[in-house]
Amino acid sequence: MRLHEIMWPSLLACVVFPTMSAAETVVRVKDGDSLVVDSNGREVEVRLADIDTPEFNQPRGEEARDALKSLVDGKEVRLELVGGDAYRRIVAHVFVGDLDVNAELVRLGLAWVRRAYDPAPSLVALEDGARQAGRGLWADEDPVPPWIWRKTEQSTDRQLGAIPEVECGTKQSCAKMTSCEEAIAFLRQCKLTRIDGDGDGIPCEKLCRYYR
After folding, report:
1. Residue 7, domain CATH
2. In the prediction, which pLDDT does 39 show?
3. 3-class DSSP state for residue 92?
4. H/E element holding 67?
5. pLDDT, tens digit (0-9, with 9 covering 90-100), for 165-193
6. Residue 28 in domain
7. Quick check: is 146 in a domain?
8. Helix (H, G, I), strand (E, B), or coil: what is residue 124?
9. Residue 124 sits in the same domain as residue 188
10. Residue 122 falls within a domain, yes or no?
11. pLDDT tens digits for 61-118?
């Protein structure tokens, strides 16, 4: 690994946000655990620290995104920086007033705690409470953590041909699909979740039966 790759996360945080007290305005929510803020006229992507929400094409993915939007979209937020990540995003705990947004998503049952990153015990306790109460994704049968979901998708992609670009709205059911690749394109690009009945990220069981 090159030196600049090792130093990048810390340098990014220091250069973009030299202090942790300044309020930044959220201009866009990308998914359940990442957002974009306006920092002195510059758009900067922020990844919420210590949590992982369902991918957008997972069950509860849209719900997690919508929950984050309702909490932060268009609002001033305070960032407590952790550093940066490999995707050149700021990694931070996000606050709206006194509300810890990262913790609130966990409390709602819309995020897993990344225990490998040594999170605060209070965050782990919130996840345990959400699980016991059956809130959000914990009401589902066998919810799949997003880091496992991503590995499954990558494994599937290695078995498939090229995923085509499709025009959303032109096909609405598995009966209209001509290949597994096309079905996956509609699922991922158009969020056509109706063709993925069991929510495992692989649509149209008959077309895609060899890729499971």
Report:
1. 2.40.50.90
2. 87
3. strand
4. helix 61-72
5. 889 999 999 999 988 888 888 988 898 98
6. yes
7. no
8. helix
9. no
10. yes
11. 999 999 999 999 999 999 999 988 888 889 999 999 999 999 999 999 999 999 888 8
Q: Of 176, 196, 175, which is closest to residue 184 (Cα–Cα)?
A: 196
- Beta pairing class for 51-52 and 42-48: unpaired
Taking the C-alpha atoms of residue 121 and residue 155, their distance in angstroms, rounded to an integer, is: 33
Looking at 24, 55, 104, 127, which residue is catalytic?
55
| Tokens found for residue 192 | 């056509």
Annotation marks residue 63 as catalytic:
no
* pTM attached to this predicted model: 0.67
Instruction: Give me the torsion for CA of 2, 17, 14, 118, rounded to 10°.
Output: -80
Q: Which residues pair with 23 in a beta bridge?
A: 78
**Is the same domain home to 40 and 115?**
yes
Greater confidence (116 vs 149) lies with 116
- Is 188 in the active site? no
Query: Annotated catalytic, 114?
Result: no
- Whether 31 and 110 map to the same domain: the answer is yes
Of 60, 65, 89, 188, which one is the catalytic site residue? Answer: 89
> Letter for the amino acid at 75?
K
